[in-house]
């Protein structure tokens, strides 16, 4: 464990209790790899167009920037949603720990967290 209290990447990777998420740490790498792959596929798309005909190649060359931007934007949105979901899970876990520390129950069972009765009805 490093001084900040977080496990190293390798410790988190082989944590079979899933106490820490590595997805957030890998998001930047996944995004970089996705951009590299999208760039490669865009280049292949252009070259393939010229292999079919000159005019098809020109058409592919014209529309390829739009396809590239749509693919990169979609990848970015997907990764941001994924990171937000993991952030929510982490924050809820920390909130649960805070509630359990501030309001210990009589039975000692941590699964019993006081719930608002109004929220239970809906």
Brief synopsis:
By secondary structure, this protein is an all-alpha fold. Helix content is 73%, strand content 0%.
Question: What can you tell me about this protein's structure?
Answer:
The protein has 122 residues and is mainly alpha-helical. The protein has a domain at 25-100. Helix content is 73%, strand content 0%. It has 4 helices and no strands. The protein has helices at residues 9-13, 23-52, 54-102, 117-121. The chain is elongated and about 75 Å long.
What layout of secondary structure does this protein have?
Layout: H1 9-13, H2 23-52, H3 54-102, H4 117-121
Helix pairs in contact: 2-3
Q: Structural class from helices and strands?
A: mainly alpha
Low-confidence stretches: none
Q: What's the helix-strand series?
A: HHHH
Binned, the helix content reads over 70%
Average pLDDT works out at 83
Note the gap between the termini. 42 Å
Oligomer: single chain
Amount of beta strand: under 5%
DSSP E strands, number: 0
Count of runs of 4 or more consecutive helical residues? 4
Largest β sheet strand count, sense and barrel closure: none
- Sum up the overall morphology in one term: elongated
Rg over CA atoms: 24 Å
């Amino acid at each position: 464990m490093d001084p900040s209290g977080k496990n190293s990447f390798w410790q988190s990777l082989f944590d079979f209790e899933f106490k820490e998420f590595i997805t957030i740490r890998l998001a930047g790498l996944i995004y970089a790899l996705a951009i590299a792959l999208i760039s490669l596929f865009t280049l292949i798309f252009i070259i393939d167009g010229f292999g079919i005909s000159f005019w098809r190649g020109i058409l592919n060359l014209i529309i390829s920037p739009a396809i590239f931007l749509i693919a990169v934007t979609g990848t970015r949105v997907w990764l941001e949603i994924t990171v937000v979901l993991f952030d929510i899970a982490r924050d809820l876990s920390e909130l649960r720990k805070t509630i359990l520390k501030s309001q210990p129950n009589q039975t000692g069972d941590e699964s019993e967290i006081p719930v608002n009765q109004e929220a239970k009805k809906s």
